[in-house]
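Training component of the fellowship. As part of building independent skills, the fellow (R.M.) carried out the full modelling exercise for a liganded target. The chosen ligand was PRP. The inputs are recorded below so that the supervisory panel can assess the work.
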Amino acid sequence: MSNIYPSTHPLVAHKLTRLRDKSTQPKKFRELVREISALLAYEATADLLVVPRQVETPLAVTNGAELKEKIGLVPILRAGLGMVEGVWGLMPSAEVWHIGLYRDEETLQPVEYYNKLPIEPTVSVCLILDPMLATGGSAVATVDVVKRWGVNRIKFVAMIAAPEGIQAMQDAHPDVPIHLAAIDERLNEVGYIVPGLGDAGDRQFGTA
Ligand code: PRP
Ligand code: URA
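Fellow's submitted model of the complex:
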């Protein structure tokens, strides 16, 4: 599968296992989401463009680099919120633009309820953040929104994906790379990822 990047980092595997564990409580769950997000974002941003910049150390002037691209973080409410802090820690000058979508429990279709993007794009690359890529409906709809905004350099960062969600993204947006902690087996009859981790929003916010 081109453009799909499941992490092979041992720290990601270790933390993901604790995240999946049904006995992990919301405080620890949020901490793990934050940490895994930072590790995945580190991998996802390996191709960001830089421009040369000289810097004066206490000893000499030397050649360095600074980021060229303006980065936007786009968490999908609500579960994507927990991914912001870890990623933002790595790139504190990134802008954060929230998109509110929930998945209708009956139809599994995404319903948009929050979008305050300005008319003109203010960033050149967006990292869309959502822990779960299940049917892919929410991810596809959010990439649609971000592309309509005018940003075409997009990366999708998630904890766990089902094959169905990956397929939906590849059909709709084959240009968008997907960075993941794991690809799981399947969706169950109500659209949950198996083995997965349950409901990522409920487990973060203690609303199960
Ligand atoms: C979850 C998850 C994704 C979506 C994935 O959100 O965080 O946004 O489901 O499912 P899909 O790939 O089938 O669209 P949910 O709708 O539960 O909302 P929440 O984050 O507000 O709890
Ligand atoms: N949303 C979740 O939070 N978990 C799933 O397994 C699927 C969608």
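The panel noted the following from the submitted structure. The first helix runs from residue 10 to 20. The two ends are 34 Å apart (CA to CA).
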